[in-house]
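Before relying on records like the one below, remember that each one covers exactly one chain. Contacts with other chains, cofactors or solvent are not represented anywhere in the record.
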Amino acid sequence: MAEGCLCERWAAGEVAHGRVLMVMPGKRLLIDAPLGPLQALPVVARLAFTLKPAGRGTTVTIEMRVAGTAANGLGGPVDGVLREAADRLARRIDTGRP
């Protein structure tokens, strides 16, 4: 749902990772998402999930775009956050476990 929150809660706190900007069921999800090390910086960050049929399954492409001078040099840490999230998503889809 547009304007939805990509949020996480745990015993010691909670965080809003992003705000949903666009939902095209079965095709695309776009989130305003300054993840991890970007949250405290003056940047704009867009996280897109694109879905395409692939045989009997679906291919999910994840793309992150960040704009702002403060984002320079943060490619590695942001890639790490996205890699961990993609691995968790794949595990959840494949096994049903987080």
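The longest strand covers residues 13-24.
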